[in-house]
Please model this.
Amino acid sequence: MCILFIAVQQHPQYPLIIAANRDEFHNRPTLQSNFWQKHPQLLAGKDLKAGGTWMGITKGGKLSALTNVRDPQKVMPDATTRGELVTHYLLSDVHKTDYLKTLRRTKDNYNGYNLLFGEWNNLWVYNNHTDKMNKLSNGVFGLSNADLDSPWPKINQGVAQLKAHSQQNGPIETDKLFDILLNQTQSSDELLPQTGVPIEWERKLSSVFIQSEEYGTRSATLLLVDNQHKVTWLEHTFNPQGKNVQQQHFEFQLN
Model:
């Protein structure tokens, strides 16, 4: 499960800003973000258990990211790994219109997901539970473990914070963007969504940054594209105690 905050055409210098957390079990083997050896045009992390990824961008400007839809009553233990949806799109020449047809044809093969995909300046979100496609026009969006912009407290909070920062005329302060992703404020019980997990887990999962010994936020990533089409990718990696143990920084020009 992950969370994404996306600002499209909100900052005068950066037409795209994405702030994202990857939440996962700490014992799941993972490679931090890098350009893949066999696919040097792709910048992404890698799930070493299933081989896919949760977020990536190519040097040609294709972008994709994944969040799980939390619905334990519909979980299929033998479902196809959702991480392949990101890599299949990023590593193929398929147009997003054709890829949408593939997503709809295969939607029942996967547990619930939202897939953000498209060119960096023309992004869409597909939800396989609702079979709905949404275009991200100008604005700020939040995507977690339900529908796009579901009014969960942590979504509302992160969207408001990213909107306020993006609409300032000054330079981007990446430390403040990371602060959005590091927020451990949990919702009060009366505001918690009811997604089918025990109340203790609803509380733990209600914060943007999740910290527990077995499951939590593994990485926080900022993806910025400026007016000159230069990509900046910053990533912080965390251990089960929520400590920042590694930092990654990549910059490149889109083709």
